[in-house]
Amino acid sequence: MSLKDRLRRLTGEEESPLKSDPSDHREQLSELRRRLDAILSRRPGPSSSNHNFSRPQKNMPALQDLLSGCEESNSSGSFFRIDALREGTDSHGNRQFNELAALDMESVALLANDSQLSEFDGKAALFLDTETTGLSGGTGTLAFLIGAGWFDDEGRFIVRQLFARNFAEEQAVLTALTDIAASKRYLVTFNGKAFDVNLLASRYILNRLDNPLTALPHLDLLHPARRLFGHRVINSRLVTLEENLLGFFREDDLPGSEVPLRYFNWLRSRNPYPMLDVFRHNCLDITALAALTVHLAEIFNADSGSPHYVSTDFCAAARLYQDRGRQAEACSLLENLTRSAPQSATKEARQSLSLIYKRANQWDKAVNLWEDLLKENPENIFAAEELAKWHEHRRKDFESAFRLVDDILKTVPKFSEQEKEAWLHRHSRLQGRCNKEHPRRGHG
Asked: Minimal CA–CA distance to 34: which of 14, 56, 18?
């Protein structure tokens, strides 16, 4: 049975009213969307004990009666547009929007690992988030609400939401996003590389429209946020980062898993009230993107006394510097930490710094750090191992290396099986080398 026949059976229609001309794809797609709308309108939605999704009464208000929005039209049709405005002095948690207008784009380029971004400024960004009919993506998933944020010439932050009131309005929404993106120079999302951007790319293809996002350098905040703050947050969800980093707590926020249900019930009933939570959730996501961008970028220029960060955050920033091949910046950051951070962070900073010195063949500096670490804590396995390797492989002083390994095996109360096996192997090897050099002298 063909797809057309299946649609006829589901909708109860007679022989196909589709035009027989196969070249008229746009009209065929519109007709298919109309039929899918008809199917959805007959499908009973999942029940919910928390919300009443019954059909609205005749006097149910329209969207424009409840929101600061209006219907808008373009060359592809009509859709509903909602605008929200944030002054530069407004804040999202502990960050103000005007901080983003003066963003250090070198730091943004570092976060994204894309040197192109250093050429722009904060006002050239397009912040993007979508709400969809499903959470797994795929060609059957529609981005029915696209939230876009940017700065205007007066430094105010604009949030514009493009809402497809039915499947037939998708093309108009995509065209509106194209118009917005035309004046932007780079893209900021949260997990957009894995979901939003790929989903929108498929929707542009299905609608035979050029994708305006393809050429934009892309900063996906999820990955650097996880790298910089994963050591002290329980997960990398946007709301978790908001609470722990920005001090922003959402009240009565709609879980993302409920968003598709709200939209399908909207298609069935046109009840606007349950959709208000969806619009609010999406607007908060967009403003959170702006605030989180400031927070991630500023860490590279903040001092260790900044109230926005803890010392271990700077250690993570140094590791990101190293991963990006910026050894000098990593070294400078860690050296500052060794002078000002609490002891726990100082230990981590010194260990990381010693490895930079080691790779740079600055052995005196590296050895001094290892010896200091071991003097502070004789059970410091990292320092003992690095010193033992230095004595064995650089100085060929097998006896000093053997004593370090022997002391660790006697001092450290617990090893994992793998660690113990490695240390016993090193102990046996060094003992053999010492006996070979001094056959009459015993070790152990």
From this structure: 18
